[in-house]
Every structure is written in structure tokens, then in C-alpha cells.
Amino acid sequence: MQKLTPAERSELRAEAHALKPVVMIGESGLTESVMKEISASLDSHGLIKVRVAGDDRDARVEMYENICDTLKAQPVQHIGKLLVLYRPKVETVKERSSKAGKGMREVTIVKASASGTKRPSVTKVMIKGNERVTEGGTIKRAKPRQTSQKKSGLGK
Question: How many structural domains comprise the chain?
């Protein structure tokens, strides 16, 4: 992986300024689960901040270098207990499951204007299998929600 140029590093530092730390390294140090979390955060965000607990600067520098080497990330900035890391985001194509479209249907709702002289408003909405459209054009559940007997006072 190629190193960042000073101009790129400067841009990334400016972008990272507003970020909050997404991973915290505790007293137990750089464990396998922490490395997995840092890797997942880098995959989804690309640029992240990591906060390190502990006062030993040499240990923090060693962790910083270890993270960069292991995860193939680029070091951007190390200020105090904050580490800023960059790795280009991994673009993944998400497959929609076959169940995602089940039970959903598209309905066209036509509402007359309030004055009756203007054109009616036409909207297309997706409704679930347990919902219905009323005459007024609002969406309601077909079955009422179950209520707790304790809350209604019947359970005593």
C-alpha cells in the first residue's frame, strides 16, 4: 500500500477533526476483538479515530504501528491518546434477500384538494401486508395492536 502524501494527510486530518472516537482501547490493550472492531470500522468509515487508555506514550506508539501494519491502514495523526487511521473503504454490493419484498405492495393514494377546485394530490406508497388504506387516504393497521392486560387494569 502506498504512503499518503503530506497534502493527503493534511486533508484527512482536517476531515478527522470533527470525528468522535469510534473504538476505545482499554487497559487490556490491543486484543483480537479490538483489532476486529477497528477493521470493521475502517471498512465502513474509511477514516476513524481510536482512543487509547493508558499513560505510556511508547506503548501507544507501538500500538499505532501494530494496528497500521496488521490492518494495512495508513497513519494519519497521533495526538495524545487519540490515533487517527485511514484505509480506503471497501465497496460491497449488498444483495437483497428474497424476503425483503414479500408482504409489501405499492398503493396509489388520491386525495381531493381541500377547496375542491384544485387537482387532487396523487402519491404512491409502499404498505405492509397488515396495513390498509382508509377512505381518507391514511394508512392504518388491519389489526389493532395487542395491549397489555396489566396496563389496562384487567390483569388484577
Answer: 2
Query: Residue 128 is part of which domain span?
Result: 105-143
Establish how many alpha carbons lie within 13 A of residue 34's alpha carbon, considering only the half-sphere containing its beta carbon: 17
Torsions phi, psi for 117 (to 5 deg): -100, -20
> Are 124 and 80 in a shared domain?
no
Show Cβ contacts of residue 1 under 8 Å, excluding neighbours closer than 6 positions: 72, 74
Same domain, residue pair 72 and 132: no
| Residue 66 cell numbers, joined | 501494530
pLDDT digits (tens, 9 = 90+) for 18-59: 999 999 999 888 899 999 999 999 998 999 999 999 889 999
User: Any idea what the Cα angle at residue 78 is, between residues 14 and 86, rounded to 5°?
Assistant: 60
| Local structure of 25: helix, strand or coil | strand
How high is the pLDDT of residue 131?
Answer: 84
